[in-house]
Design goal:
Number of helices: 12
Helix content: 55-70%
Distance between the termini: 25 Å
Order of helices and strands: HHHHHHHHHHHH
Structural class: mainly alpha
Number of strands: 0
């Protein structure tokens, strides 16, 4: 499928933007880790995995709101993103990859009801603001989603962008424009490269077989 990421001019341009975005995130996260005294994102992910009993969670994104909230409440977006992806390094320990579930919980964090979560956080001013204000949660979570969109191939980025929750999409558009304005311009043109992903191809097949009004 990698060849699909180079087929169009937009895809090739996106690939360069993604490499640049990745460098920006890595550099910012390194500085932020020093500021927060974090030696290893992987060790931090392991600590959170124990704290929030990740190994016992069901494979359902609704189970991961606690970790998503902890990430946005504790660190700046670039460092939080690095800790998030450090969970992938624990695949063999956990028996599965929790990253997609945490990312989906992050996307839906606007709708989260923090009072129903068992959080292991000191109730600082920042935590209280996120706890009480859905828009603040949505905006802060959108910073993570904007970074995810910015470093994946265009067909994936297009898929994420075009299937965002309508209540959440304005936050993501705002944060994407701030973090990666050129990428935001590309996606705002309504590209449908996501239809080349497995999910997109499956959707097209269903519509072909059962009619365009099915989905």
């Amino acid at each position: 499928m990698a060849i699909l990421d180079k087929l169009t001019r937009a895809s090739r341009h996106w690939e360069k933007l993604a490499a640049k975005s990745n460098e920006v995130i890595q550099r910012a996260a390194s500085l932020q880790a020093q500021q927060y005294g974090m030696y290893s994102p992987i060790e931090e992910a392991r600590r959170l995995a124990l704290l929030y009993a990740v190994k016992r969670k069901r494979r359902d994104w609704r189970e991961y709101g606690d970790i998503a909230f902890h990430l946005i409440a504790t660190w700046p977006s670039d460092l939080a993103y690095m800790v998030l992806y450090a969970f992938r390094e624990m695949h063999s320990e956990l028996g599965y990859d929790p990253v997609p579930f945490i990312l989906k919980a992050m996307e839906e964090i606007y709708h989260l009801q923090p009072e129903n979560l068992e959080l292991h956080l000191e109730m600082t001013e920042q935590v209280r603001r996120l706890f009480d204000d859905p828009a603040e949660r949505g905006r802060t979570g959108a910073k993570i989603i904007a970074r995810e969109i910015s470093i994946v191939p265009l067909r994936w980025a297009s898929g994420i962008y075009n299937t965002l929750d309508p209540a959440v999409k304005p936050f993501v558009e705002e944060q994407l424009r701030e973090f990666n304005s050129h990428g935001a311009d590309i996606l705002s043109k309504g590209l449908r490269t996501w239809l080349l992903t497995r999910a997109g191809l499956a959707r097209r097949l269903i519509r072909l077989l059962f009619g365009k009004d099915v989905i």
